[in-house]
Amino acid sequence: MEFKLSHHIKPKRQIYFRNLKHIDTDIMTLDLQQIPPSAYFTTVSESVEYYNKTLSTVLDLHAPLKSRTVSFCRSAPWFTSELRSMKAAGRISLSEHQKTYSKSLKKARSQFYSDIISKNPGNSKQLFCTIDHLLKPQTPSHIDTTEEQCNNFVTFFRTKVATIRSLLSTPCAVSVPT
Asked: Which among 1, 10, 57, 52 is positioned nearest to 31, based on CA atoms?
């Protein structure tokens, strides 16, 4: 019996984008101010065409158009646009939660050490211990590994590999429905 599995090739597509986040707005503003004023145009469409070309040139200078080849997976037929937008909203919410948590953690840590320092103005031992703890965090203690533990580890995996090899080398009986 022979099975033929078709290998699905993901469709590739060329996408174009601009990195607008890294535009230096001050320099771009100067470039926009240096655009010569429009000449007298006879029609509105000539004026629009002039500004479109000029502004596109400035934009290309500060955020050039880049391209990238990407592959897309086929989405499940039940994956609707509503689910897609909910997933995106979830990612945004998670990101905001992580930022808020990180800020709160930093604030709590800062407040904790500030309280210790302010409550012990004359206790130099406590202050030095606190500063030492801040500047030199403790290294995690490691459990000393014995030779016996190492040998048990090796024996376990050798047995595991031998068992898998023996299972793969024995022919398995395949029952064919009649």
From this structure: 57
Q: CB neighbours of 63 closer than 8 A, spacing ≥ 6?
A: 18, 19, 20, 22, 23
The Cβ-side half-sphere exposure at 145, using a 13 Å CA radius, reads 7
pLDDT tens track of the chain, all 178 residues?
666 655 667 778 899 999 999 999 999 999 989 888 766 778 888 888 888 999 999 999 999 999 999 887 777 888 888 999 999 999 999 999 999 999 999 999 999 989 988 998 888 898 888 888 888 877 766 677 788 888 998 999 999 999 988 888 776 655 556 5
Residue 58: exposure state from Cβ atoms within 10 A (0-12, 13-18, ≥19): middle
In angstroms, the CA 176 to CA 178 distance is 6
End-to-end Cα distance, the chain: 15
